[in-house]
What does this fold into?
Amino acid sequence: MKQIIILAKRELQTFFDSLIAYILLVVFLGLSGFFTWLYGSDVFLMGQATLQPFFGIAYWTLFFFIPALTMKMFAEEKKTGTLELLLTKSITDWQVVLGKFFACLALIIIALLLTLPYYLTIWSIGPIDHGAVWSGYLGTILMAMTYIGIGLFASSITNNQIVAFLSSLFIGVFFLIIFDVLANNFTGIVGQILNFLSLSTHYESISRGVIDSKDLFYFGSITLLGLVSAQSILTKRNIVE
It folds into this structure.
């Protein structure tokens, strides 16, 4: 666990040293603030104290931001040769994957913590469903974990950051859109399976304040599948070399 924490701290520091963290935080807060307070179905237009507009925009912004965050994790290090140097040290492939995963997750959590003033401001405006707010944050974190798992896998299969970014988006769009669209066109067991595979089904459930074990299982299993796949790619690469 100590090695994972050290790696996570190193990766997180790299984010801030390269300005990636600052750019992500500024753009994320700018977009979420604009759509939460000023545009479209914002808080004032809805006429009620709720953070649903924020969770709605976070649903889309993280879909693009996280692949941009994870695309360099393995791809760049394989291209520059630093990954081989890292893996020659007394550290396992699994520890490397988890270290990068927790670094990305920590940055997303920092971004979400910076949105707490939204919550406090809306709370001061009128009565707010606190359970729904915290469930929404939980759902957003779980969704971010899923995207990070997918992004790390996409980055592990190539040494080109653009390919990693596009691959992550391509995989993510199935869970975000395609499974949901297909579920509406099928009935019976096939429709149920496609509906279960749809990320929006589980995210919307949690963001409304309903925490179900099947939703937790869904996010956890997709995340784990992405991380295990990334670790397997690294292991096979080491064997070949």
About this structure: The chain is about 80% helix and 0% strand.
